[in-house]
Amino acid sequence: MALNMDAIGKPIGPMTRDYTWKDAVLYALGVGAGFSELDYCYEKNLKVIPSFAIAMIFDFFFQAATASGINLAGILHGEQDLIFHNPIPTEGTLITTGRIVDHYDKGVEKGALIVAQSDTVLADRKKLFTSTITIFGRLDGGFGGKDRKKRPVEFPDREPDFMVAASPSPDQPLLYRLSGDIFHLHVDPEFARMSGFDMPIMHGLCTHGFACRALIASLVPGRPELVRRLACRFSKTLYPGVPIKTLIWKTAAGKAVWRTVNAENGQTVIDNGEFEYGEVPKDEIRFDNRVAIVTGAGAGLGRVYAMELARRGARVVVNDLGGTRDGVGDGSSSPADRVVEEIRAAGGEAVANYANVSTADGGTNIVQAALDAFGSVDILINNAGILRDKSFTKMAPEAWHAVLDVHLKGAYNVTRPAFAVMREKGYGRIVMTTSAAGLYGNFGQANYAAAKMGLVGLMNTLKLEGEKYGIKVNTVAPIAASRLTEDVMPPELVARSKPEFVSPLVLYLCADRCPVSGNTYNAGMGVFNRAAVVTGPGMVLAEADQIPTPESVMANLKAISDLAGGKVYPDLNAQVGDALMAFQKPAAKAPADQSQGFSSVSAVFDAMPGTFVADAASDVNVVFQYIIAGAGEWHCAIQDGTCTITSGVHDNPTCILKIADTDFLKMMNGQLPPMQAYTSGKLKIEGDIMKSQLIEKLFKLN
Ligand code: NAI
Fold first, then answer.
1. Residues 669-679: pLDDT tens digits?
2. Which residues have any ligand 1 atom within 6 Å of their CB?
3. Same domain as 303, residue 216
4. pLDDT tens readout for residues 617-648
5. Does some domain include residue 499?
6. Does some domain include residue 523?
7. CB within 10 Å: which end of the chain, N or C, has fewer?
């Protein structure tokens, strides 16, 4: 059976699992805990061993394997990575959702890898842990997919700092399997023999639980709640009753590498172990399991974004062409390499990429680098930049194009393939980099200002196109000392303008919990503020069918230019809607006697057919859907000069008008001008807003 490539990125779950303290204790006993670690085994002051997480989401393993189309006869649990966001409580309801990240091809002889990732939260949405499972499919290699290149875990060339010996009982799998993995291979001697083993074998995850206990006892004794990450590769099978040793090397503050070996023959049964521990700062913004691309990250601002994202858990593609400030010359791999080295030295994960953002191939190459190294793209910071300043008449086409190619075309080239990945997975954060030169203008930077303002336009549309896929797109206008600004910035400003003062905002715009999309922020020297295109209320200079004169514009320029009471529009429709509403006739005077008006919403719709102006409806084919909060829904279909009012919701309305019942009655009784209802937000119009303008012509209600 071929692997199902369509399964990549499709949601798996949510899967719900209730558990009690007894499940946590049963697991602890299954992985060798006893009286010497009573905290794991006694409901009084019970603490949960963090590796219990994987036993609780065991179904996810099989759902991912089944969805991937892998040949189930050849599957092995290859690797396991658990990141803990909060301690696991002693009882609760777990909700797990995930997806297959990618399929990799190791070749016909070696098999295929299926990588699946999941997040598990409590019923109150508190995030507990993220799991990345690598399933090894021995029988599925050679399907023509890409291989995975993974950075090997580096073990120090010295004796381990800790060595914890343990002796799993010969009956250990019988107890461990009660936590969920009841596969015959671990219990049925005949099945085990048919599978080529002398007897049932230990569950790899049972040995994993022994290792987790050993790591806690060595590095955070008695405090399992401090475990933040536990990752490893399962490398050899082990028979029950064979003693093991877990070897642990501390590598940095809060970090260790480990492996578990068969104490009888010295073979490594679990390899490439990584362990991270320490307090989780409250409300810390983390990027664990997120994959970020930062363009132009070999220096300046991009370097700091990449370092900081990696420090907070992201796996980062450090893209940089390594060019000169004006983009002339061939470039060099060394700036990107240096940043990758810095990230790795600090314990982070990163790969270098040297592609040129200004070509479509370069953009594809950058995104592919993220997919190859880390399997996905969650975050993209379009940051690469060059300068070629000249006053406008001296600005030759080469200087114009070179700057637009890197900044504006560059963002298009990288964002397009990244956006496709994000759309597929239903999540994304994109940051564009503009400049005060574009937002406000700067002498000698026509090319740069045009490109930088173009990026704001790109954001304005992508925020709309990304909305339903969970993609948020924002823009930063930084001020920072870098080689781009070294000769224009006064020396006293340089010290106060470290890129580190910009990165907090950019990181927040990349975070899961960033709520905004389509915003532009200035950031530098620790000062942050929002910049936006503001539209003033202006004025109507003439009736809609009369063309105003330039003289009337001259006479009214002050009022036309006035920004007092201005608005920031979320999209074109909202602005056009306001412009159209400005032509609405002023409301008819409210009836002197209230009883002359409509007293109920249904009365308005009952009266509507009688107010229909058939002459105005030739060639009109529209459906207006009214959603009147507090009263119900009606739709009004106009076709072939007739009008039909029906209660309920239409399948395919031309536009939808949403308003509260009291406001609707006021509007219909002439006490609330439609324009005012719209501009104050009382009336919301969705869909083809232009067609809503026909209502006034088609009905003579008041
Ligand atoms: P920088 O020159 O230190 O860093 C830019 C990086 O982009 C360089 O390492 C360069 O090699 C790389 N790069 C250039 N062309 C590339 C290409 N075609 N493909 C891949 N990489 C390429 O500059 P800085 O100051 O860190 O600027 C970062 C971004 O911030 C730029 O977009 C810049 O326009 C913008 N910006 C910076 C301001 C500041 O005050 N530093 C002010 C306003 C905007």
1. 888 878 778 87
2. 295-296, 298-302, 319-323, 325, 327, 335, 356-358, 383-386, 406, 410, 433, 435, 478-480, 482-485
3. no
4. 888 899 999 999 999 999 999 988 888 999 99
5. yes
6. yes
7. N
What are 298-356's pLDDT values in tens digits? 999 999 999 999 999 899 999 999 988 888 777 787 899 999 988 876 767 899 999 99
How many domains is the chain partitioned into structurally? 3
* Residues recognised as catalytic: 448
Residue 168 near residue 211 (C-beta atoms within 8 A): no
Domain that holds residue 680: 594-698
Copy the structure tokens of residue 698.
């088609």
> Which of the listed residues 501, 531, 561 is the one where a domain comes to its end?
531
Cis peptide bond N-terminal to 499, omega within 30:
no
Closest CA to 383 of 355, 402, 354, 411: 411
| Cα dihedral 680/684/689/694 (nearest 10) | -80
**Cβ atoms of residues 548 and 541 within 8 Å:** yes
**Domain presence at residue 524:** yes
Closest ligand 1 atom to residue 354 Cα is 20
Report if residue 549 sits inside a domain.
no
* Residues 18 and 88 both lie in one domain: yes
Distance CA 524, CA 501 (A): 6
Closest Cα to residue 698, out of 624, 625, 612? 612
| C-alpha 437 to ligand 1 mean position (Å) | 14
Sign of CA dihedral 358, 359, 364, 369: negative
Q: Are 352 and 310 in contact (CB under 8 A)?
A: no
The rounded Å distance from CA 482 to ligand 1 centre is: 8
Q: To test ligand 1's pocket by mutation, which of 326, 479, 484 has the most ligand atoms within 8 angstroms of CB?
A: 484
How far apart are the CA of 154 and the centre of ligand 1, in A? Answer: 33
- 265 and 302 inside one domain: no
- Who contacts 73 (Cβ-Cβ below 8 Å, separation ≥6)? 139
Between the CA of 67 and the centroid of ligand 1 the distance, in Å, is: 43
